[in-house]
Predict the 3D structure of the following.
Amino acid sequence: FFDRDYISGNKIRRVHLHLTYHNSFESKNALAFVKYLNTHPRKMQKYAKIKNAGIKIANGEGKKYRNYKNKFLEKAIKEALKEFKETL
């Protein structure tokens, strides 16, 4: 896991990079989740709203932000793994 802050306009932005092994549990979850969001636009919009609300609520505290998104993520990943099981 790597992170880096950079300046964009007058804001500081943080980028996270996660590295894992091919066909690992983490990579399958991530791939299924991306496929799921790309094929379910309403879920993608809901996730965007949750992320934006989480940013405001957490006020820079990563743990609060992750906890805020966690319920949605767990459910969506479970659904995604069922839906895309054969293509992972």
About this structure: The chain has a mean pLDDT of 93. The chain has three helices and two strands. Strands lie at 2-8, 11-17.
